[in-house]
Design a protein that fits this description.
Elements: H1 3-11, H2 22-25, E1 30-34, H3 36-41, H4 44-56, H5 58-75, H6 91-95, H7 100-129, H8 132-142, E2 145-150, H9 164-174, H10 190-222
Parallel strand pairs: 1-2
Helix pairs in contact: 4-7, 5-7, 7-10, 8-9
């Protein structure tokens, strides 16, 4: 186990415990909670990196979008029930079609392009993660914290127990910026990939909530005033 893994385990990333556990009950001192993905999302480095990825890899993003549209057109005739998806009953026709080679080629090209973009984002996340143990230790020392648990493993904790923002602030000082161009032969780490996927899910969910709220506000604005 590397020092990095050990530190993360101490933070509770690899250990699921609760405040009511015997081990936690024996700790003499402050117990805090942290949201690792939330702390990374809160860094200036990640926000800037994601903007840079959209610019640096704009060609790949545009090409992938164009090929998705092309693939949709090729697959549309096989969507016999017009539900926008290929069901299991429709797949045999695709497999037997003369268009199969074209479909496979487009899927491969789309995957290659999107992987380039994803690799850049994962690489950015991994660079921030590399500074996470030091930030965790720094905040723990400053605030005299004896144990830090992941937010998801705690049934109850007061707001002041959460040190996520403090970790983000420490990370901002330690790594104000990151590169979005992975080195030659780069391969994603499992840990970086897992955190990246969690971050992606959260960002997508946040965009959906924002869109829904905007629609709700628009609907309220258009609704006739009551008499």
């Amino acid at each position: 186990m590397t020092p990095f893994t050990k530190t993360l385990a101490a933070a509770g990333l690899a250990v699921c415990a609760s405040l009511a556990s015997p081990a936690a009950a024996q700790v003499q001192g402050r117990i805090a909670t942290v949201d690792t993905s939330g702390a990374i999302i809160g860094t200036d480095a990640l926000k800037t990196a994601y903007d840079q990825v959209n610019t640096t890899y704009q060609a790949q993003i545009d090409q992938a979008q164009a090929k998705r549209q092309e693939l949709t057109q090729v697959l549309q005739p096989f969507d016999t029930n017009s539900n926008g998806n290929l069901d299991e009953s429709e797949l045999p026709a695709v497999q037997a079609s003369s268009e199969l080679a074209t479909i496979q080629r487009l899927e491969g090209e789309i995957n290659s392009l999107t992987n380039q973009v994803s690799d850049a984002r994962v690489y950015a996340v991994e660079q921030i993660l590399a500074q996470y143990p030091a930030a965790l230790e720094e905040v723990a020392t400053q605030q005299q914290i004896q144990m830090i648990l992941p937010v998801g493993s705690v049934q109850f904790a007061r707001r002041e127990a959460d040190i996520t923002q403090a970790i983000a602030t420490s990370l901002n000082a330690k790594i104000p910026s990151v590169s979005v161009v992975p080195p030659q032969g780069y391969r994603r780490s499992q840990q970086g990939t897992a955190v990246f996927q969690d971050i992606q899910q959260r960002l997508i969910a946040a965009r959906l909530r924002a869109a829904q709220e905007a629609q709700g506000q628009e609907g309220n604005a258009q609704a006739p005033a009551g008499r």
